[in-house]
TrEMBL record:
Name used for this protein in its record: YigZ family protein
InterPro entries referenced in this protein's UniProt entry, alphabetically: EFG_III/V, Impact, Impact_N, Impact_N_sf, Impact_YigZ-like, Ribosomal_Su5_D2-typ_SF, UPF0029_Impact_C, UPF0029_Impact_CS
Domain UPF0029: 138-195
Source organism per UniProt: Cellulosimicrobium protaetiae
Lineage: superkingdom: Bacteria
């Protein structure tokens, strides 16, 4: 499963007086990525190059890179390879270069652009993707407080998450449970409620969790 990053990251790398400013942003679509690219270009209007790599989609379905005037294959593709190798999606990487007067050569450019993205990922907060099953549990209001803590702790211990609580005629808890843990969830819920509570299974969802 591919992961992503929790929020935007900026990182600077200096190689032989050239400044490489890497910006990473989580994005939900190619259109979102294009908006980030346009903003970076506007912020650094005086820079010579704004090289781009982006990966979008639950399974990294859409991938794109541009060298923006650098020799072909020395910037965008190496940046994209870093994103692929680190298995991150729904992210755009823009590396802005201010030329320092010293030619780096093709190999030097590849190393600089890929290192800028790799080092930016090192300081980003990673988020892992998981497929979880949405489960609903209806709880009488008198027991809702106790069950809230139990369900929250159970989810935290089993790579799931307590997603929502809706207060209607009863309190409806929505818990996201790993498919392999569904039977255990049912058994633990029955044990903690003396058999009075049951879970209703719904659809699977792709969820971002802290790595």
């Amino acid at each position: 499963m591919w992961g992503t990053i929790a929020g935007p990251v900026d990182h600077e790398l200096v190689v032989k007086k050239s400044r490489f400013l890497a910006h990473l942003s989580p994005v939900a679509s190619v259109a979102d990525a294009d908006a980030v690219i346009a903003r970076i270009r506007k912020e650094h209007w005086d820079a010579r190059h704004h090289c781009v790599a982006l990966v979008v989609g639950t399974h990294a379905d859409q991938q794109r890179s541009t060298d923006d005037g650098e020799p072909s294959g020395t910037a965008g593709v190496p940046m994209l390879e870093v994103l692929r190798h680190r298995r991150v999606t729904d992210v755009v990487a823009v590396v802005t270069r201010y030329f320092g007067g010293v030619l780096l050569g093709a190999g030097g450019l590849v190393r600089a652009y890929s290192s800028a993205v790799s080092e930016a990922l090192d300081v980003a907060r990673p988020v892992r993707r998981a497929v979880l099953t949405e489960v609903h549990v209806d709880v009488p209001h008198a027991d809702a407080g106790r069950l809230h803590g139990i369900l929250r702790d159970w989810a935290a211990q089993h790579d799931g998450t307590l997603d929502d609580v809706a207060y209607r005629a009863e309190a409806q808890f929505t818990v996201l449970v790993p498919p392999a843990e569904l039977d255990r969830f049912d058994a633990d819920l029955a044990a903690t409620s003396s058999g009075t509570l049951t879970a209703r299974r719904h659809t699977d969802r792709v969820v971002d969790l802290p790595a």
